[in-house]
Design a protein that fits this description.
By secondary structure, the chain is α+β, with helices and mostly antiparallel strands. The chain has one domain: endopeptidase fold (from Nostoc punctiforme), CATH 3.90.1720. 29% of the residues lie in helices and 29% in strands. It has a six-stranded antiparallel β-sheet. Strand 4 and strand 5 form a beta hairpin. Helix 1 crosses helix 2. The protein is globular and about 40 Å long.
Length: 123
């Protein structure tokens, strides 16, 4: 079940789809959590913007096996780089994600297979 913070993050992420966001995935996720946390009067649970792999290793207690709307997803590539974004929906073996596109510098929705994801954080 998503927390109030995760729900607020999802709402902000969904509202940003289609907007120009020339930032990294980490900056995008951090800014969403920072804004939502400020709105709710709670601290941002994410450390200041770092690489996705650092969040993944530092926030082990927040990892979950089953993703939910508003969770942060992580996908790694063969070279060890990771990227992240916000989960907008879970359908059978896929997740619909909200993330910035490096190609067109806008926030997009993307479908990823659950099997391709390294994991999820629920904050």
């Amino acid at each position: 079940m998503a927390s109030k913070l995760s729900k607020a993050v999802f709402d902000k992420a969904a509202a940003s789809v289609g907007q120009s966001e020339p930032m990294t995935a980490e900056e995008f996720v951090y800014e969403l959590y920072d804004s939502a946390a400020n709105d709710l009067g709670v601290p941002n649970p994410l450390p200041p913007v770092v690489k996705a792999a650092v969040w993944w290793s530092r926030l082990k207690p927040k990892r979950v096996m089953i993703p939910s709307v508003g969770d942060v997803f992580f996908i790694g590539d063969k070279s060890g780089n990771m990227r992240c974004g916000i989960i907008g929906g879970v359908f059978l073996t896929n997740i619909i994600c909200i993330e910035p596109s490096e190609k067109n510098k806008a926030v997009i929705t993307e479908v990823h297979c659950l099997a391709d994801c390294k994991g999820y954080l629920r904050l």
